[in-house]
């Protein structure tokens, strides 16, 4: 008996995982779960619907070194049976990659730790072109072009997640700016409910300030 290695065909798998069924609210909540696991005190969410539209989510958590960000961007990087800390909510979501790429075609993750900034990018069109799990490693000049990178540079440590090429959000929308405004209202309501214990800083829980376009999300206790 012999065995052969059959790695999944990258273009097909990366496109198929986009159809898992994330809503925008659930996708952003998954990213905030990561912020909580990273011991962040705040998470900023920026919606920019004009021109080269994007959504950016930034926290002041512990950040990631080069090997950590590579692992975070790897598909199937964690064993769901591994023991995790009580505050690690990642086991309940489908992860940074699936959540993000359910909404966009370009996912950029930038992280700062010990004065070092690392950036990685999944670009679905690049994966299709190369027909390989080709993760882009950004150079300093490219990092400087990322939206809100100056915000990350000002803090001791943290992570910035940027969604660009928002094809799923644009589908069927005539006016993305108006549509995004409605989605922001829905998002605020969703986050105020889902994370109300963290926003309040209830006993035994580290307080998390969630802001959307510089306005704090107020908790709503169901």
From TrEMBL:
What keywords are assigned to this protein? ATP-binding, Nucleotide-binding
The record's section on InterPro entries has: HATPase_C_sf
* UniProt keyword annotation of Nucleotide-binding present: yes
Q: Which Gene3D superfamilies match?
A: Histidine kinase-like ATPase, C-terminal domain (3.30.565.10)
Keyword Nucleotide-binding attached: yes
MF GO annotations: ATP binding
Q: Which domain of life is it from?
A: Bacteria
Q: State what protein this is by name.
A: ATP-binding protein
Higher taxonomy = Bacteria, Pseudomonadati, Pseudomonadota, Gammaproteobacteria, Enterobacterales
């Amino acid at each position: 008996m012999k065995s052969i290695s059959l790695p999944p065909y990258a273009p097909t798998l990366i496109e198929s995982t986009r159809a898992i069924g994330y809503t925008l609210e659930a996708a952003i909540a998954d990213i905030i779960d990561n912020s909580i696991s990273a011991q962040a005190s705040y998470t900023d969410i920026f919606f920019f619907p004009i021109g080269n539209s994007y959504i950016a989510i930034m926290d002041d958590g512990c950040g990631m070194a080069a090997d950590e960000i590579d692992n975070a961007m790897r598909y199937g990087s964690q064993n769901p049976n591994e023991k995790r800390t009580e505050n690690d909510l990642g086991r309940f979501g489908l992860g940074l990659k699936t959540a993000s790429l359910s909404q966009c075609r370009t996912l950029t993750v930038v992280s700062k730790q010990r004065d070092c900034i690392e950036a990685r990018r999944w670009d679905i069109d690049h994966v299709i072109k190369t027909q390989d799990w080709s993760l882009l490693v950004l150079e300093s000049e490219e990092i400087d072009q990322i939206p809100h990178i100056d915000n990350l540079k000002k803090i001791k440590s943290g992570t910035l997640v940027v969604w660009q090429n928002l094809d799923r959000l644009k589908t069927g929308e005539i006016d993305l700016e108006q549509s995004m405004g409605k989605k922001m209202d829905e998002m605020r309501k969703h986050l105020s409910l889902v994370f109300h214990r963290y926003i309040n800083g209830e006993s035994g829980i580290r307080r998390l300030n969630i802001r959307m376009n510089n306005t704090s999300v107020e908790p709503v206790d169901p």
